[in-house]
């Protein structure tokens, strides 16, 4: 019961940006430029500064539960040493220090990318979700509704959902803290989903997981955990990439070698990233397998899914509303792809690929995106309801 207990005990009292005395909860993230600079003013005020490391306030609720400790124990002040503990510099980008699996950056540049990507999804879908979310979250007198966002990234989705559904409480969980102050009905916790969700059992009506598969060791096992966090009738929504690249006509574009007439760099980049993720035990197949997994799961019913097709650029005629929309999506995808390709550098280098090869792959892929080569990326949205007769945990 770490999260829900500490909810009431320690989330209050957030009075200034540097006061992080919350339950694994951060209202402001360290910026990449801050990481290298010792900052003794950051903390809980229990130090008089001048080279002295501020005191870290730790309440180890974690010792009571049957799982390894989280990256950030229950009650914390974010000190310089904690920042160093949470992030590490890998090939010029800051990545989280705690997950062996997820190795994309967790710095300002990446947060900007995630915000662009979020806006791209919103432009495409017109809102923040698909499926019967409004029905699940409708206001009912005397009933508290709760939303969990797994791998919340910059927390932009969690914050917007808190604004759209002010009668709901939203909890975001990520390996890295966030940069913005969430609204009062939203809180962000720093934790590793791979450690289990037992502290959340029976607490949520809607669980959302967007683009997190690459950081998940056992996605099939995670479904069990998610089902237990849901109240009966609650809903799970996954939105995740199919790591394969599709050609202009939405057929598979394989990673052909460079002397092949259909060679393109982006499929080669995607394949290399996929292999690097797999080598770290992350998942790249969840988008394809989730409908089958959920249909076969004893706790879920009403499984449904749809494909979201994202173009690599703005090649659509501008004379229809849909064309205008798809061009806007394509332009955002161009930005996202270029930033993603750069963000993949630490991951690719950590997989053992030679630096020259990685840098060529990145430079050529970015060039290809700029040149406007046409392809599609498929994102699968899959949702299901928790069977009403199933116990919460
Ligand atoms: C590609 S980002 C997507 C962020 C957000 N869901 C969105 O759609 O904007 C993936 C996020 O999942 C987080 N993540 C990956 N594996 C995780 C894990 N095991 N536990 C917690 N967070 C994880 C990463 O830190 C990162 O912020």
UniProtKB/TrEMBL annotation:
<dbReference type="Pfam" id="PF13489">
    <property type="entry name" value="Methyltransf_23"/>
</dbReference>
<dbReference type="InterPro" id="IPR029063">
    <property type="entry name" value="SAM-dependent_MTases_sf"/>
</dbReference>
<protein>
    <recommendedName>
        <fullName>Methyltransferase domain-containing protein</fullName>
    </recommendedName>
</protein>
<feature type="region of interest" description="Disordered">
    <location>
        <begin position="1"/>
        <end position="54"/>
    </location>
</feature>
<feature type="compositionally biased region" description="Polar residues">
    <location>
        <begin position="1"/>
        <end position="37"/>
    </location>
</feature>
<dbReference type="GO" id="GO:0008168">
    <property type="term" value="F:methyltransferase activity"/>
</dbReference>
